[in-house]
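User: Before I run my own analysis I want an independent prediction to cross-check against. Here's the chain; please return only the C-alpha cells and, at the end, one sentence I can use as a sanity check.
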Amino acid sequence: MRLGTVAQAGHYAEKGFLPILRDIPGFISGHLLDTGNDVLTFVALFETPEGATAGVQASREWFRDEWSSFRPLPPEVITGEVLAVSSADRRR
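Assistant: C-alpha cells:
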C-alpha cells in the first residue's frame, strides 16, 4: 500500500497529527472520517475558541508541511460553535 492512500491516512494522522492536537490546551477529541471518493474529513473539538484557533493554526501548518502525499487540493478549514451534542451512555 503506497503512502498517500485513504486506507493509510488514519495511521498517518494518528502518529503525526493527533499528538500535536493533544498538546493544545482545551483539546477534546479529533476524528478523521473517510467520506468516500478519496475525500477525508477531520473534525476536532476544543473547549475554548482559543484552543480551536490554535488547532486551526496547527492544522494548517501540519497539512502544509506533512500531508503533501495525501492532498491533491489544499484542505478547507471551517470553524464553528457546537450547538448540540450527544454521546452514548457507557455506564450500566
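Sanity check: Residues 49-66 form the longest helix (18 residues).
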